[in-house]
Amino acid sequence: MSTVKLGATLFCYGTEYARYEYDFEECVKQAALAGATGYEIVGTQMLPSYPNVSDEFLGLVQRLKAKYGIGPVGYGANNDKGMMHDRNLTDDEMLADTIIDLKAAHKLGCKVMRSQYMLSPEAFERLAPYAELYDVRVGIEIHNPESPLSPLMRRYLEVIKKTNSKHLGFVPDFGCFAIAPNKAHWIKALEAGVAEEHLEMAAEMRYQGVPLEEAREDLLAKGAHPAINAALQGMYGFVQFKPKSELSRMLEELKEILPYSFELHGKFHYLGEDLVEPSIPYPEILEVIKASDFDGYLICEYEDELYCGGTEFTKRQLSMAKSLLEVTE
């Protein structure tokens, strides 16, 4: 039986933070008010001295933990190959950057660090002794358009099994289970002048596997507003979706990688008052989690594509998760 604790990434409040409506303390306060028992901090977003953690900031984190009852449980690392203008970073450079992130996570007291798959499987393997030294479990985020056992993720699974390290694993992002179009992108397209019938055509083409350029040409030829290009880019990119018929296969893949998963990222793009995410099948996903032996945090992650702020949506997400997981605390 699973033991799931509920948290939130402070990235949920990125819009409020960027607009100077919230400072770091207010983000922590709002996460606590929403019902989170711990939070993830994305270093590049909220560490004033990134990539390092200053003693001053650490003191603030500790004071806020005493004040609001929650502290950092996860660290969102930065794995950016494109930091040089003329080339990608090498594996050695990516590994060095990731070790710096490990030090930051360790100083903050985080036991889990979320890394992206720009950190190659080869560099990930070499990270094992450093993760063990700092006692921080590093999970490669399984992010859309990947799925739990896509070819790339299988390479990471091979590394995890080869090293037999308890400090290398996964962080599944629920966005990879999407089976319908992103509602936030859909709303923005409608507001930009795209007809709903053309969006429905675009979604059907994506379900059928029509190539992107072919879908674009077909839709524009049928008179679709040019703003449909942005929606199409999402449908074929990082918010793509699969037919519902593939959900059972993906959930079986989730079951296979859960024993190697340190944290769950509860990605969501829109949540109405009915507490239903239109594109991500939360009831089915969380049923798998409930029946598993997973022991860790489900971190709520709101992607504010509508730029309306994450305060209310984060409350809704945690409320939905509590209900579906039957969490009583």
TrEMBL record:
The record's section on InterPro entries has:
IolE/XylAMocC-like (IPR050312), Xyl_isomerase-like_sf (IPR036237), Xyl_isomerase-like_TIM-brl (IPR013022)
Chain ranges of the Xylose isomerase-like TIM barrel domain: 29-305
Pfam families per UniProt: AP_endonuc_2 (PF01261)
Origin: domain of life: Bacteria
Write down what this protein is called: Xylose isomerase-like TIM barrel domain-containing protein
The species is: Enterococcus pallens ATCC BAA-351
